[in-house]
């Protein structure tokens, strides 16, 4: 899948800006004789040295100084080229600034801002200050637009400041000639090896996962992209840089901002990204609307669109996917996929979480990666995993094949691999092993899944990543995992009341499983598989002209089933210890229906007495019944909170939304009702069709 068009445009804009800066710098260093040179891709700008009259104006009326005025240049836009002498313009736009080295002042007509121009309005109140270059102790080897606001800075060196940018009250702004737009970082083990990745400012999780999983690498993979050096600072139109003591090596795309940071070094910022409030940032790449704030310390990190760090966070050698939030904690050598949240004081070290969508509870220690020798261990976390309050995770751990599982509060999880999706792991009673309840989230907390489905759909603010982040929770990959887990539970040896570790049942990890838990897992996994398969036939029947479909057509459709579902592939993943399939590697709609058909024939084999219409009618009735049960179980799981709260907290019912009024539950009930209507409509068309045959 290609990178979104906006990402390509962003990289192209950066290339054009750097080429423009380099062209100006090469002309000013070529020592050509006095005259005018055309500059820019369309050659519309005119570059010339300042005249004697303009030098006198700058010295006498503007209070400026320069060691060598012959190295001072003017870059004139077409609207300003008619006037030979720019002294009057310089009088109002430049004052009390010392120039050193080779500098270019851009004189460009300032277009009037529309009242609804959000880019200009975001610069307020700074735009109320006098426009121009005023009261700077030093500007050296820089290209500065005079229709910007550059005021009260200590030193600006090797920097291209575009029109309508704000740079105020800063200390030293210097360049790093070796700054690259690429970012090389290591995730996984902190020492004793590493997973080395190379990312661009516009990279997405697909490209990151291609490197992580070593799958689907193509000739135009990001590894083969040549480094793009950024030898001069670029502060683009509508940017704000203020009250920051030290900046070294910066590329700022339009409308990005740095507010009162402590130290910013080797950073590339895409539009509307922000660094602020006493944060220290070194070697970071920020995408659209990404932010670092409030005394945070960030290094060697890529923040994708709408990712946020702060307050009081420490993040190093990590990739934060779209819509990820890390606050008041630490994150090192990790990949956090979309919609992952660590809102509280927690520790995340060497966590590989490419599909994200999870939560890290307060005080959770997902970082016991030190074996007493070197910190060389890591954890593979599955989609939607919830690490509870004050959990302690001892590496290595793999929950990549246990999506949407919960590690309960206060649990210490020793090294293990768990492959039972939607499970709950809690502290055990034998002081040796924890207990696992396979499928507990599906059976006892289906509200969690229903709410998460709705939450991820509404909280996806990263528009440039939406083409791949909208996957469903219940999909072929997770259904395959449920199918594999059910198979292991069904094949367990009969007799014992307790199954101890994955020696007894593959996939339960270093935990104990009760016979009751085994039966619960079998039941809820079966319901999950069947609901998914039945959704397929309902959707397929809704796409057909139900009143005219013939028995022959139906028989043909269900005789053309592909090789079947791929529980064997899950078994291979379990044995080989590799990454499961990712959502963007999933099936096409036609492949999906073929997969669901194979499940249907496995779960609901036709009876000898069935004709094709009777068999489908039985399936549709089962679908409607399961959906009603599912909606009721969602209500029941949420209602437990209401009942427990009302018995515990005074006035609880009066200030909490009742389960019956919860929008998630209303939506589940509405879906069950709509399915019932559709089933009745299809079955009515069956009866009509059968009557017409008579």
TrEMBL record:
InterPro entries: Trimer_LpxA-like_sf (IPR011004). This is Uncharacterized protein.
């Amino acid at each position: 899948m290609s990178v979104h068009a906006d990402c390509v445009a962003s990289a192209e804009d950066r290339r054009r800006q750097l080429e423009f800066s380099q062209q100006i710098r090469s002309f000013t260093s070529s020592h050509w004789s006095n005259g005018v040179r055309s500059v820019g891709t369309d050659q519309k700008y005119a570059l010339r040295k300042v005249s004697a009259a303009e030098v006198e104006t700058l010295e006498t009326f503007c209070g400026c100084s320069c060691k060598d005025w012959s190295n001072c240049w003017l870059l004139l836009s077409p609207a300003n080229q008619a006037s030979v002498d720019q002294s009057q313009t310089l009088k109002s736009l430049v004052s009390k600034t010392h120039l050193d080295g080779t500098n270019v002042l851009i004189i460009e007509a300032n277009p009037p801002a529309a009242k609804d121009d959000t880019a200009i309005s975001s610069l307020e109140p700074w735009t109320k200050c006098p426009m121009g270059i005023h009261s700077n102790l030093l500007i050296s080897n820089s290209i500065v637009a005079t229709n910007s606001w550059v005021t009260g800075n200590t030193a600006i060196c090797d920097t291209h400041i575009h029109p309508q940018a704000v740079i105020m009250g800063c200390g030293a702004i210097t360049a790093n000639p070796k700054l690259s737009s690429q970012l090389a970082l290591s995730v996984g083990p902190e020492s004793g090896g590493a997973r080395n990745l190379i990312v661009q400012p516009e990279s997405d999780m697909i490209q990151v996962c291609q490197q992580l999983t070593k799958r689907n690498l193509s000739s135009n993979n990001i590894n083969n992209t040549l480094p793009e050096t950024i030898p001069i600072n670029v502060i683009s139109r509508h940017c704000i840089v203020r009250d920051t003591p030290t900046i070294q090596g910066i590329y700022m795309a339009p409308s990005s901002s740095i507010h009162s940071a402590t130290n910013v070094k080797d950073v590339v910022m895409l539009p509307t990204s922000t660094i602020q409030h006493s944060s220290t940032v070194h070697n970071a790449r920020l995408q659209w609307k990404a932010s670092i704030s409030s005394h945070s310390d960030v290094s060697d990190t890529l923040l994708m669109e709408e990712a946020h760090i702060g307050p009081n966070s420490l993040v190093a050698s990590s990739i934060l996917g779209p819509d990820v939030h890390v606050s008041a904690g630490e994150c090192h050598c990790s990949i956090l996929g979309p919609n992952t949240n660590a809102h509280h004081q927690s520790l995340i070290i060497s966590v590989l979480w490419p599909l994200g969508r999870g939560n890290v509870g307060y005080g959770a220690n997902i970082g016991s990666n030190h074996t007493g020798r070197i910190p060389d261990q890591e954890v593979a976390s599955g989609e939607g995993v919830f690490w509870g309050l004050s959990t302690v995770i001892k590496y290595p751990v793999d929950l990549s094949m246990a999506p949407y599982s919960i590690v309960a509060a206060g649990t210490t999880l020793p090294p293990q691999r768990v492959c039972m999706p939607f499970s709950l792991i809690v502290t055990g009673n034998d002081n040796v092993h924890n207990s696992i309840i396979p499928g507990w989230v599906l059976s006892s907390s289906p509200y969690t899944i229903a709410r998460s489905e709705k939450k991820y759909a509404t909280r996806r603010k990263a528009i440039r990543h939406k083409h791949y982040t909208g996957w469903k929770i219940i999909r072929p990959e997770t259904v395959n995992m449920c199918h594999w887990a059910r198979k292991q539970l069904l094949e367990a040896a009969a007799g014992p009341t307790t199954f101890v570790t994955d020696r007894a049942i593959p996939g339960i990890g270093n935990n104990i499983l009760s016979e009751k838990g085994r039966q619960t897992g079998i039941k809820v996994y079966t319901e999950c598989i069947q609901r998914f398969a039945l959704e397929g036939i309902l959707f397929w029947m809704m796409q057909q002209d139900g009143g005219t479909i013939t028995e022959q057509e139906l028989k043909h459709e269900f005789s053309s089933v592909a090789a079947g579902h791929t529980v064997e592939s899950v078994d291979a993943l379990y044995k080989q210890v590799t990454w499961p399939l990712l959502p963007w590697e999933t099936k096409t709609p036609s492949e999906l229906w073929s997969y669901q058909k194979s499940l249907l024939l496995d779960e609901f084999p036709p009876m000898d007495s069935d004709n094709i219409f009777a068999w489908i009618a039985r399936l549709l009735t089962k679908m409607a019944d399961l959906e009603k049960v599912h909606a009721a179980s969602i209500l029941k799981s949420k209602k437990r909170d209401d009942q427990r709260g009302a018995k515990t907290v005074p006035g609880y019912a009066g200030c909490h939304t009742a389960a019956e009024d919860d929008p998630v539950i209303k939506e589940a009930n509405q879906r069950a009702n709509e399915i019932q209507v559709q089933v009745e409509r299809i079955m009515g068309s069956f009866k009509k069709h059968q009557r017409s045959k008579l």
